[in-house]
Amino acid sequence: MIATEACDRCGWATAGGRRGCRARFEAFLARDFSDPLFFRAHRMFVDTYCLQHPEDFCASAKSLAAHLAGLCWMLEGGAAAAVGPERLHRWLNGERRLDKPPLPDRFGTMTIGDLPQESDAMAWGKAVRAWAESTWTAYADLQPLARRWVAEAAGGEAAPFTNLAR
């Protein structure tokens, strides 16, 4: 029997704790880059993992904005789950100053451990979206800020983002 321990970031119980969690993340990343059908959910996958491991991937306000606003734009604004919104990437480049808000205590009811190790690309995309939605829900208090960042990155044009006003 292999001993498991919880990842001290997301809580997933796996062999090796945080190291095992990161190894799973890296294995899925490798698959993304080797199979274009799996890559279709790449950016949503990365942003979700980063939001569940904010100490490692959201240290600055800009990195938090990249992942949180990116996930918002994909889930609510229809940005491509493969690469995310280019306008957000451009908006975050340069000397932009943002304040980093306090993060939630928990990061969702699902973790990377809930994603299927073996699946077809369609099932993978659905699983990643469910995980992303769980994480987005955990960030409920920061959703208005994420929507504001999206609107600013969009040049103040909220019209393309039908659910942005929520």
List the topology elements.
Layout lengths: L4 E2 L6 E2 L3 H17 L1 H4 L2 H11 L1 H4 L3 H17 L8 H7 L28 H18 L4 H11 L13
Helix pairs in contact: 3-5, 3-7, 5-7, 5-8, 6-8
The proportion of strand residues reads: under 5%
- Helix/sheet category: mainly alpha
Read across the widest sheet, the strand sequence of neighbours is 1-2
Order of helices and strands: EEHHHHHHHH
Describe the overall structure.
The C terminus is likely disordered. The protein is globular, with a radius of gyration of 16 Å. It has a domain of 108 residues. It contains eight helices and two strands; from the N terminus they run ββαααααααα. Helix content is 54%, strand content 2%. With 166 residues, it is mainly alpha-helical. A hairpin with a 6-residue loop joins strand 1 and strand 2.
Quick structural gist:
This protein is mainly alpha-helical.
Labels describing this entry:
single chain; 166 residues; two-stranded antiparallel ribbon; 8 helices; 2 strands; globular
